[in-house]
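JOB MANIFEST
job_type = single_chain_structure
chain_count = 1
residues = 682
[input]
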Amino acid sequence: MTHIGLTSYQASMAMFSILIILLLTRWRGRQFGNYLILASLASVAWSFVIVLQYTLAINLSPEIGLTEIARNFTWFLLIFEFLKRDNGEQNLSAFKRVVLITCGIAFALFILAGYTPFKLPISSFWVMLILAILGLVTVEQAYRNTVHQHLSFMKFIYIALTAIFAYDIYLYGQATLESRINSDLWQARGVINAVIAPLIAMTMSRTNDTESYILPSRQVVFYSASLIGAGSVLLIMAAAGYYIKLYGGEWGRVLQVIIGFTTFLIIVVAFSSADTRAFIKVLLNKHFFNLKYDYREEWLRLIHLLSTPTAESKELYTRAIRAIADIFDSPGGILYLNDGNDFFNPVESEKVPTQHQLFEQPQGQFLEKLHDEEWVFIIDQENYPTDDRYHLLLPNWVKSIRDAWLVLPLINEGNLIGFLILLKPRVNIKITWEDLDLLRTAGRQVASYLERHQKTELLSEAKQFDTYHKLTAFIVHDLKNLIAQQSLVVKNAAKHKNNPEFVEDAIDTIDNSVARMQTLLSKLYSSEGDAKEAQPVYVSQLLNEALTKCQHLVPVPSLTIQDDSAQIAADPDQMIMVFTHLIKNAQQATTEDGFVDVNMYTQRGQVVIEVEDNGEGMSEAFIRERLFKPFDSTKSSKGMGIGAYQAQEIVRSLKGDIKVDSTPKVGSIFTVYIPLAQPIAA
């Protein structure tokens, strides 16, 4: 049985050590804090000496007695502080003197008996019994003299100290009768003291000292209370089993095993039940905490649920229901959202059949109350007959939902984006203003996430349309240029139709137009066309072909190539279109007696193409705000305003860029930078 006693006092030492850590971090230097730390240290020392005796298997009775007296003495000091706060020093000096003298005499007797040949004049059990009785009387006096406003948060430490001294009275009272300590009671004493520590922590959490307090986790309190409850049941059933074994004859042992196993099974079944856990949570929140909810935990849980990434709307809707339902241990509910036309449809449900009619009254009073007053409708009128004065506004289809409990509006930035119908919680809950405030706040947070998700989906859809529109605009722009080529052929056909060279040139132009249109169609059908057509191509060839397309306009452009071997990885047709656009724009901005010069060279792993003219030029504001903006043209009905934007997009897709340097009435320089396809050989 030695290991049982060892474990018991190790538990006591561990629990008071944890209490000391909490006190040092949150209550050091505050009212009662130093005395409570001192008492906890004494309790740790007392438990440690007993653990040492079990571990080393040596007799440490004098040391155990001395540390136990020291432990009791520190508890007396703490109780005196309680009494001093509410009654003043002068009213307890005589009582305090009696207690201190008694502790001093006991301490001296144990030192003499433990370390000298002197023997105690009375049994050591009587000394400890007297101290325990004195401790119980002291606690009783403190309880009776505590003012009412302090009693609500001090009662738990009074219960804890009463338990310590009452158990000691029982232990030493029996020891004085039998002249020996009952080993079972002694071994259980460590666990009894360990159970006391959470009660002391709860006292600290309920203190009205607004400058300092500790906050034990509600989960810790929940599990501690559950363990204490389960342990109490097991102790009661163990006692019953003991007496059955003692007086049950042949069946005694069998009945003891049956009762023990059945009790354990009942505890496991009970605490695995969601209803039981919900009942315990409600009980603890109602009677052990000033606030009904741990708002920090509730907020962190809600944010974690909603902010976890998900690509599925259904999953987010389910989380939104759970985020609210879990606050009240509700099994589920139904989420209704605005479809964009002020009709509210069910988008997701949990633990509820989804076969419910659509809500089709956009201008109904029910929605007006949800929106205008953020009213939480309570459907369960059996428990709330007068709280909800707008109950008659509830549609019949809402009342027909089985176990419907309340309707929560989901409002974001003043807009009603939906509402949530919750089912009845597992434990009957009376709605208070604290519940309503939490509901509305959580509802607003859920609404913001839902609306953000809806806007993200709309943005994604808009981006898809934007990609399609961009491709369409590029194709239309290219078609415009092809039509211009065809129109030029038709315009000159009547005049030069008998000229063989014109006919040959017209055929080449039509052939080129057909090839270009086929390429455009292939790109329209396949979004991967650009990547497949990208290939190493000589920049000099692209520039020569672009200049050929611009020879019919004036001023005729000039071309200077400093590196014939420069290559880029690109779609040749696209790059010819980019260079052609830049050259033609320069020609159109320049008078017939001006110049357009194209210069190509390489630097720092890039090919650089400069298109320079001495035309009209552009202002910095125009370059910054309009030049590369799509559908913004200076050519009236003759242009689409997409050429410069398209050229910039194509160049940037190759990890390059286009820079512009221009001065009004002086001219412009368009500089294109594109990474080389491969290093240039020295």
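[summary]
Residues 433-496 form the longest helix (64 residues).
The chain has 21 helices and twelve strands.
exit_status = 0
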